[in-house]
Write a structure and sequence with these properties.
CATH topology of the largest domain: TIM Barrel
Number of strands: 48
Structural class: alpha/beta
Keywords: Hydrolase
InterPro entries: Galactose-bd-like_sf (IPR008979), GH (IPR017853), GH2_Domain-Containing (IPR051913), Glyco_hydro_2_N (IPR006104)
Family: Belongs to the glycosyl hydrolase 2 family.
GO molecular function: hydrolase activity, hydrolyzing O-glycosyl compounds
Protein name: Glycoside hydrolase
Shape: globular
CATH superfamily of the largest domain: Glycosidases
Number of helices: 17
CATH class of the largest domain: Alpha Beta
Number of domains: 5
Helix content: 10-25%
Length: 964
């Protein structure tokens, strides 16, 4: 291997010399021995990363290059970039690979073909000193016909250039440093093969479900004398291990062919031919779908007449499957299917490139299925053959995309080289992977710009006509055009770009009765929501030990340092768990809102796993290795994201004592057929989640939903259930303590016995009439909104609760209910800036306000309109009673409830304005009473004291002047 930094190799005829001798020193920079398949970077070649490294990817937040805070991470030898995973070595340019091969005598007179399964990016090939050609596909293997090679020794020289050959967009996951990285090399199959003159060049299998048959379309290629005559033998055999009757295997089908080797108008011999063959599979042939992925191994044997030694065999695996549109939903074999998808963005930290073995992909697919998902969307890239095979076997649906994100400089439909490349790569993808039954949706790529609607309307029409075996959409994200079979659009979803604190979960009280019916009513075709979620959790610093390969988590190292510098390094695990549980709550409502919508097409999560680029987007309940982070098990996720998902439409999740619990049962069922099932509900007590009364999981009420048939779909809604909670209300009113209840729905299959369960927490707090007055609840406590008064009276020895008006506090930290959306670096500081709350659930404050140590739905009323206080200026030993978790880019020490000794007294400061909580905010009023009761009780004894001067200075720092 030799690195061609100056692009001198072709001019200097490197293909004509022995690079294995003069390729340069094995010093990690110039050249040496490299093993293929593999990349040169993972084998130690390339350059050291510096602050001047010219990356392939957009950096939105340029503060790394400018801010003093990042100065230590720009020093030579200590470079750590915060915006994506960092390779150990980096190289973009041409590299030359060479080896000597021995052509056996048995190959005499035969053409030799070289196959390179996965090349990044453009390859050029020489045999000895003859230039064979060049290939540039990012999706399909590079194949070279080397012609007839004489037996004996030959030198094969390959030049690979991993720079931008066509501008597919700097952030396209097919090439960008945001995800897989700019690797150089060849992975997967690297093989030389001899082939006879006549071969099957392409097999395209068209399933015909109604006829239980396959139409096998064969393209034959011959030598100089043409295709000639012979026969084709087609054999199909079931090759899955699914239970149940299999029926008789179809008989082999023999088709004779004879093509005249006459002359074409140009006087050249015809060298190609085409055959269409109908292959019956039998009336009992099994269909392929996500519930029963029956597969057939198809063997096509080509036997040229009179040349038995030239017999060749092409093999493929197919499924009897048709995908279509029925109204506003996608249908597989005529049955409605709800897309429950997530993204795969080509994130493989150990190697920097995707695996090409089935086992690796089968693991990823199994993880997705365990979480209840049924589709993988490959964002702006196409996976290797192994991914399709793993999906076929598991019944996983795939949305495959061309290697394009024509944005951030790139554009479509403007006559550039990208337009032709899109069609070129589409053809390659469909020819190479089109037989796979899992391949159900094709998009050109992601989120385009330019004259995209015009260009992609033609693209959809062209390729659907040429290959109608799947559905087509113009692009992921947009445009929604009439030519589409389905739309991937950025709405509806719970949080849209730049929506900030105006999004539904931040702006409106928590319910579970919202859906997207208005979108469906106005839809002309299925809508599959684009990249929903994007809810972040705090970095998992323990994850860093997993990065033992090429890509290094230097971004996480930076964030860990920031946390230490903020005096919170020992809280990292608490931050991860608390933010992760809030993230899970948001994903649950995100998924259920979609499942509640009759006629809806589905969603693509962003995502089930973390995205380590674009500033570092920790949006998954799984890490970049598709492994759990410790706060969510697959079974918990699948409860709200499965084939059969019980749903409850709750108009309120926070009740006052005396209110009834009201809900409407619904079941989203997209199984193989209707269920005969019993649907039940029950309301259970919980332990309160903190210092509240341990109620032990007793059943408060239970019932049965009428009817035993659960049809396929989600349109059926059952009668409203009203559950009186008199006993709970009396207990709450008498004790002044809120309780947490759990509503659980279960669907039990009466034939198969399977159970499908889902649950929702509901809180009951004292009603306004049962509340004590502020004075009674806080006997001996001074309650004030004035910081000066609070400090003065605490210094004088009094117990003081300070609740400043929200408008009087700084708002440079946007505190909402939800966690950070995507990440604050890539969104340029979009709100919210925090990742939820962390607190000790056993703290005496929560004796009256049940909580579990993290943000849950009862906190919405408290947080709505609240501000986060920065604790700079207070001793680091002072830990807030309730602590908002800051974005990892800032790692500021924040407080929502803070206590401290001042002089001879004690001060409790709350930046959630709950003093005048109205009657329709029982949780906020309960939190106020909990604060006052705690301040009046014996447990209010702050462990950290500050002087009146320090307290006053800090309060002045977190306050702003309010106009009169």
């Amino acid at each position: 291997m030799a690195l061609d930094r100056d692009d001198a190799g072709e001019d200097q005829r490197w293909y004509a010399r022995d690079l294995t001798c003069d390729g340069g020193a094995d010093d990690g920079a110039g050249g040496g021995t490299v093993h293929l398949p593999g990349s040169l970077q993972e084998q130690g070649y390339g350059d050291e990363v510096t602050a001047e490294t010219a990356w392939n990817g957009q950096v939105v937040d340029r503060s790394y290059y400018l801010d003093d805070r990042y100065a230590p991470y720009r020093e030579p030898g200590k470079v750590a970039v915060p915006f994506w995973l960092q390779p150990r070595r980096y190289y973009r340019g041409a590299a030359w690979y060479q080896r000597t091969v021995q052509v056996p005598a048995a190959w005499a007179g035969r053409r030799v073909v070289l196959e390179l399964e996965r090349v990044h990016w453009e390859s050029t090939l020489w045999v000895d000193e003859r230039r064979v050609g060049s290939e540039r596909s990012l999706c399909a293997p590079h194949r070279y016909d080397l012609g007839v090679l004489a037996p004996g020794e030959h030198r094969v020289t390959l030049r690979v250039d991993n720079r931008t050959v066509v501008d597919v967009g700097p952030n396209a996951h097919s090439t960008t440093d945001h995800t897989q990285g700019s690797w150089n090399g060849v992975v997967g199959r690297v093989a030389l093969r001899a082939r006879p003159d006549v071969v099957v060049r392409r097999v395209r299998v068209v399933p015909r479900v109604a006829d239980r048959a396959l139409t096998v379309r064969l393209d034959l290629a011959g030598g100089p004398s043409g295709v000639g005559a012979g026969r084709v033998v087609l054999t199909a055999r079931r090759c899955d291990d699914l239970p149940g009757p299999r029926g008789p295997e179809p008989e082999p089908l023999v088709v004779d062919y004879a093509f005249d080797a006459g002359m074409s108008p140009r006087g050249l011999s015809a060298t190609t031919a085409h055959l269409d063959v109908d292959l019956p599979l039998g009336d009992g042939a099994a269909l392929w779908d996500e519930h029963s992925p029956a597969l057939y191994a198809l063997e096509v044997a080509l036997e040229p007449e009179g040349r038995p030694e030239d017999r060749t065999v092409r093999r493929t695996v197919v499924g009897l499957r048709e995908v279509s549109v029925v109204g506003t939903q996608i249908a597989v074999n005529g049955r409605p299917t709800f897309v429950r998808g997530t993204l795969e963005c080509c994130v493989f930290p150990l190697t920097g490139y995707p695996p090409t073995d089935v086992a690796s992909w089968a693991r990823i697919v199994a993880v997705c299925r365990a979480h209840g998902l049924n589709l993988l969307r490959f964002h702006s890239w196409c996976p290797p053959e192994a991914a399709f095979r793993a999906a076929d076997e598991a019944g996983m649906l795939l949305q495959v995309e061309g290697p394009v994100w024509a944005n951030q400089g790139a554009s479509l439909g403007e006559g550039g080289s990208l337009d032709a490349f899109v069609h070129e790569e589409t053809r390659a993808v469909l020819d190479e992977f089109g037989d796979h039954p899992s391949f159900v949706v094709m998009a050109h790529g992601n989120e385009p710009s330019g004259r995209d609607a015009e260009f992609l309307g033609d693209w959809v029409t062209t390729w659907r006509r040429r290959d109608p075996r799947r559905l087509y959409t113009s692009g992921a994200g947009w445009p929604a055009i009439v030519e589409n079979d389905l739309d991937n659009v950025s709405e509806p979803r719970l949080h849209r770009w730049d929506e900030g604190l105006g999004s539904r979960l931040n702006a409106t009280p928590p319910t579970t009765d919202a859906d997207y019916s208005a979108w469906v009513e106005g839809a002309a075709r299925p809508v599959v929501s684009h990249e929903v979620g994007q809810w972040c959790a705090h970095p998992s610093f323990a994850e860093r030990a997993k990065y033992t390969g090429l890509m290094q988590p230097r971004n996480l190292d930076v964030f860990a340092d920031f946390l230490e510098q903020g005096g919170m390094g020992d809280q990292a695990e608490d931050f991860l768990h608390a933010s992760g549980r809030l993230q899970l709550l948001c994903y649950k409502e995100e998924v259920e809102a979609a499942l509640r919508t009759p006629g809806f097409g589905g969603f693509h999560l962003l995502g089930l796993s973390d995205f380590p680029g674009q500033g570092t987007a920790l949006v998954g309940v799984l890490d970049a290795f598709w492994e759990g982070k410790g706060y969510c098990e697959p079974e918990e996720f699948a409860r709200f994201c499965g084939v059969t998902t019980p749903l409850a439409r709750l108009p309120r999740r926070v009740l006052a004592a005396g209110d009834d619990l009201v809900f409407e049962p619904q079941v989203a069922h997209f199984g193989a057929g209707p269920l005969r099932a019993r649907t039940t509900w029950r309301v259970l007590t919980t332990d309160g989640g903190g210092g509240g009364e341990a109620l032990g999981g007793d059943v408060v009420a239970e019932g049965v939903v009428p009817g035993e048939e659960v049809p396929v779909g989600n349109a059926r809604r059952h009668d409203v259930v009203r559950v009186p909670l008199e006993a709970v209300g009396r207990a709450v009113a008498a004790s002044g303590t809120g309780v947490r209840l759990r509503l659980e729905l279960a669907v039990v299959d009466l034939d198969g016995g399977a159970e499908h369960r889902n649950d929702w927490d509901v809180w009951v707090f004292p009603a306004p009439a049962a509340r004590r007055s502020d004075e009674g609840a806080a006997a001996g406590v001074v309650v004030t909104r004035a910081p000066d008064e609070a400090v003065r009276r605490a210094d004088a020895g009094e117990r003081v609760v300070l609740v400043p008006p929200a408008a009087s506090l700084r708002d440079d930290v946007a505190l909402g209910f939800t966690p950070v959306f995507w990440n604050t670096a890539w969104t340029k500081g979009q709100a919210p800036h925090t990742l939820g709350l962390v607190h000790d659930a056993q703290h005496p404050l929560f004796a009256r306000f049940p909580s579990t140590g993290h943000t849950d739905w009862q906190w919405w009323e408290v947080l709505h309109g609240a501000r986060a206080m920065q604790l700079e200026g207070l001793p680091r030993a002072l830990r807030p009673v309730v602590q908002p978790i800051d974005t990892w880019f800032s790692a500021r020490r924040l407080g929502l409830v803070v206590e401290m000794g001042v002089g001879d007294g004690a001060l409790l400061v709350c930046s959630a304005d709950v003093l005048d909580a109205p009657a329709d905010r029982p949780a906020a009023a309960a939190f106020r009473d909990a604060l006052l009761a705690y301040a009046a009780g014996p447990d209010f004894a702050p462990g950290v004291a500050v002087s009146a001067t320090e307290a006053g200075r800090w309060l002045a720092d977190v306050s702003v002047d309010v106009p009169e």
